[in-house]
## 1
Amino acid sequence: MHSSPIVISGSGLWTPAHSISNEELVTAYNGYADLFNRDNAKAIAAEELTAVPHSSAEFIEKASGIKSRYVYIKDGILDIQRMRPNIPERSDDEISDQAEIAIAAAKDAMRSANKTGADIDMVIVACAYTQRAYPAIAIEVQHALGIEGFGFDMLVACSAATFALQRAYDAVAAGTARCVLLINPELTSPQVNYKDRDSHFIFGDVATALIVEPADSCSTESHFEILDTKSVTSFSNNIRSNFGYVSHATDADPFGPDKLFHQAGRKIFKEVCPMAVKHISSQLEALGIDNSRVSRWWLHQANINMNTLISRKLLGREATAEEAPIILDRYANTASAGSIIAFHLYQDDLANGDIGVICSFGAGYSIGSLIVKKVQRSAN
Ligand code: CO8
């Protein structure tokens, strides 16, 4: 067992070059809907098919807080004949798309933690989907960054990053790893059903990365000590994707609507918000930390109304934009990376000893949270 405190010593972010505004997305979707309804006018009139309803940019912003999203490849998404990104296939000899974006975020995190590949001995790629089953994306990243040791992929949908942070903490605490690089290359756009009005606006692409190590090997002036980690899962079908290798054997359309992301958004809202409040409150209580002592809430970024409700319940008042930063207006829901983007972008102003909470909640259901304390060595 390692006796030194365990810290997050660096973080990294890769943001795609392309973005799509609500207006652009809705124009394309409504064009697709009109085309579908025109092509199927007879069947719709005979009530054999249901007309596809229009979407609206105002609804999207009001219901979710999302104004735009970044995408890895924009080409194809707004093409009403295609309605999905047009990602060129790469050969086995080329770096995979997901490893490429993972490496970009990893390099940023390694720079901020003053680490080279030689310092790291465990790589976790944690996200909602990996683009192939094997070899693991983490092992491809490990190879590209010249890291010895081992790597593996783990999928826990929206909670992949916080669950991986717990794995990293446990490995360092147990002494099975010296320094962990964990990466969340969230390539969500290939799984979005851009023909589905209820969910076409929800997701964006991004990659985030973190370095976890013992405080005694950490060389950064500013980092975060991990005070506690807590994960919970509780089965629900309300957020589901049936995409998988078994489709090859069932003769089902491997890309049918049920194979893409789909959800019962209202039910999730009602069920997950109280679960998240209880989870975080009981964790803080067990540590003897009053909710009012928390300076920053880096919450999962799925829906602004969920974040407002959760932080209001936790604080007994509205949280300020500084206390509970929102990034989903410009990044949308980036699955597990949302709370890590917020952590990466909104941490510099915290003072030595300030307490923060990183928390994700989503498919599974799954909730993962960490209580962290800012350490500013120059302040000592
Ligand atoms: N434009 C116009 N009207 C619309 C649209 C639209 N785009 N969509 C729905 N409407 C209509 C509905 O039909 C409904 O009409 P009516 O009242 O006549 O029936 C009305 O607007 C209201 O609809 P809702 O009740 O569904 O609207 P909500 O206020 O609930 O908002 C949300 C919908 C935004 C989906 C909201 O429910 C929500 O965000 N819920 C939480 C969802 C959530 O957190 N999900 C987590 C999923 S992410 C996750 O876990 C990771 C998965 C892995 C990654 C996947 C990568 C692809």
Note: The first strand starts at residue 6 and ends at 14.
## 2
Amino acid sequence: MIGLAHSSTVGATEHAPDSRSFPQDFKWCVATAAHQIEGGNTQSDWWNFEKVPGVIRDGQSSGAACDHWNRLEQDSELLSALGVNQYRFSVEWAKIEPRPGEFDEEALTHYRHEIELLKARGIRPFVTLQHFTLPQWVADRGGFAWEGVPTAFEHYSRKVYEALGSEVQDWTTLNEPQALIAAGYIEGVFPPGLKDIKEIVAPAIGMIRSHARAYHALHEMAAAQDRKIRIGMAHHLRIFEPARRWNPFDHWAARFVQRFANWAILDALKTGRLQIHIPFVLNIDEMIPEAAETQDFIGLNYYSRDLIAFNPWKAGMIERLTRKDATVSDLGWEIYPEGIYRLAKKLHQRFPELSIYVTENGIADREDRQRELFIRAHLQEILRALEEGIPIEGYCYWSLMDNYEWAEGFGPRFGLYEVNYSTQERTLRPSGRWFSQLTRTGLLR
Ligand code: FCB
């Protein structure tokens, strides 16, 4: 990690400001996740994980987070002021089903109310069923590695659909299974806090099976009501490049990480076969027939690029680095706008039948020095893709407001609104003001 950046330029590709416009029906969106903003997620695995000493930066736990649970009206006004026509948010399994088979009707009513508030403001809900967190009772049984998880997830998803389905057309099942597997089972920074690549097999299969079960269940319920819905998954994709161009081992390692981190799950959702091969370590080749053709669109979460070095002295023998000359965010993540174009292009080549929705893209930028440039540069790359006929239907900025950034605690500031956590006051940042003009005109000026 490189530390704070105070540069005023963004990324490797500089484009002159232009005034090209987005298609009329382009969806302008911001994204959040329940655990990061709502507060009081007491029945979740994260709530307990956060209390383990040393796992979260500065020992911060989510607590009341942004108190969004109690501020639905106010926060729907924030969305309105941004001029977005879509809002991607997650509903919290641990609140809806705090104990096995026991559904909390108040929690479901709460989310129904949230959706009504959005609709009254002309904002289309985009619901994620699971964004990193699990109910503690699921975690106790092994989380996504538990063989009962696909059935439990289907059961929960059906309940959510019964309560909210008549108002929601756009769904994502899971958020970033790739990231959850890496952080929870390889790096040990998310629950269950494991650091053993061999442990990824069962949860990877469990996630894909859970997604597939929810996908079929929701479609079946919608079809029975003659309703058309769309279901996808939000995938965390990154650009991986060899750290040393001259080093064939780095090339091999980068290609390998790419296949594992970017494509394995996406391919499984197309073919019904999950293949992950790590020489001498792990060989997954699992047929999951129910997962074949289970995406109606591809959710793309894009943040950054990594350089990959082969290092036999490192656990896992692979090292993730950042370019020395990179412009970076407050979290040290390289700002690399061209990556979004390159990934969209690859996605389109690999899955030409599916359209792409940028379900997350954003920057930790406490001082708001780089955010406008960051968004602008990524949108320019999206326009470039659109001009080449790559179907991108929308863009969600991450995030509506500052929030609890998992293992990084409350430090990183991703919001278009700044949050004062002592008073819960929200303040629109200058970049947020700019974004609200963009959403209204569709013109990148
Ligand atoms: C994404 C996560 C989201 C947030 C952003 C910064 O990978 O989906 O919850 O943490 O990163």
Note: Residues 1-9, 11-17 have pLDDT under 50 and may be disordered.
